[in-house]
């Protein structure tokens, strides 16, 4: 499930990963909340909509755009609030959440980390075999996030496995070094006694 977070408009999408880089669109939509309503009410409405989507489609994983400073503090704060609601909904269902920056999504989908919205929409339309470009842009962005994760998931899994093996090897080496240090300390502690016994048993002249 890919989500382009926002309080005024929140893009939601669900795709099915196939073999290799094959991806199949399942659903896409945009949740809107009225700008003249209280923020708490708008967050509640967003929460209700997202919960309904997650219960209906039961995604295995959720990909959300990472919030970053865009100049408008109010917009950033509202988006951050929305992301919190989205992540909570996923956590309540034990669904893994992955965050991606816009440049990461653009790079994964189009090969260009600076691609504009028109280019991204064209790529998503072609990749998913859609009859027409998804609208509005929030819907296209949500699909792009979902595709980004599907294509990056194997790399992420490989990276996690590498980290796991590295940690396992590090623990093993620490154990070996610890045992070596312990044996060295025991030998050092035993040396005076051994020397004393050797001195007592050596022939006197």
UniProtKB/TrEMBL annotation:
Query: Pfam families under this entry?
Result: RuvC
Q: Does the keyword Protein biosynthesis apply?
A: no
Q: Catalysed reaction per UniProt?
A: Endonucleolytic cleavage at a junction such as a reciprocal single-stranded crossover between two homologous DNA duplexes (Holliday junction)
Record-level GO cellular component terms = cytoplasm; Holliday junction resolvase complex
Report whether DNA damage shows up as a keyword of the record: yes
Q: Which residues bind Mg(2+) 2?
A: 65
Q: Which residues form the active site?
A: 4, 65, 138
Q: Where are the transmembrane segments?
A: none
The record's EC number reads 3.1.21.10
**Keywords on record:** Cytoplasm, DNA damage, DNA recombination, DNA repair, DNA-binding, Endonuclease, Hydrolase, Magnesium, Metal-binding, Nuclease
The entry describes its oligomerization and partners as: Homodimer which binds Holliday junction (HJ) DNA. The HJ becomes 2-fold symmetrical on binding to RuvC with unstacked arms; it has a different conformation from HJ DNA in complex with RuvA. In the full resolvosome a probable DNA-RuvA(4)-RuvB(12)-RuvC(2) complex forms which resolves the HJ.
Protein name per its UniProtKB record: Crossover junction endodeoxyribonuclease RuvC
Q: What is the lineage of its organism?
A: Bacteria, Bacillati, Actinomycetota, Actinomycetes, Mycobacteriales
Please state the gene responsible for encoding this protein.
ruvC
């Amino acid at each position: 499930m890919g989500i382009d977070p926002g309080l005024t408009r929140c893009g939601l999408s669900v795709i099915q990963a196939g073999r290799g880089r094959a991806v199949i669109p399942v659903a896409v939509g945009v949740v809107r909340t009225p700008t003249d309503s209280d923020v708490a009410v708008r967050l509640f409405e967003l929460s209700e909509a997202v919960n309904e989507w997650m219960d209906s489609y039961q995604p295995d994983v959720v990909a959300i755009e990472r919030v970053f400073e865009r100049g408008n503090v109010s917009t950033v704060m509202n988006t951050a609030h929305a992301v919190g609601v989205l992540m909570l909904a996923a956590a309540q269902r034990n669904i893994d959440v992955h965050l991606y920056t816009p440049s990461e999504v653009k790079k994964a989908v189009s090969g260009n980390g600076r691609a504009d919205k028109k280019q991204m929409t064209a790529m998503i339309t072609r990749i998913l075999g859609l009859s027409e470009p998804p609208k509005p842009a929030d819907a296209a962005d949500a699909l792009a996030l979902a595709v980004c994760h599907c294509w990056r998931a194997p790399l992420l899994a490989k990276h996690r496995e590498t980290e796991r093996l590295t940690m396992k090897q590090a623990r093993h080496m620490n154990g070996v070094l610890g045992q070596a240090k312990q044996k060295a300390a025991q030998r050092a502690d035993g040396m005076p006694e051994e020397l004393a016994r050797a001195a007592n048993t050596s022939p006197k002249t």
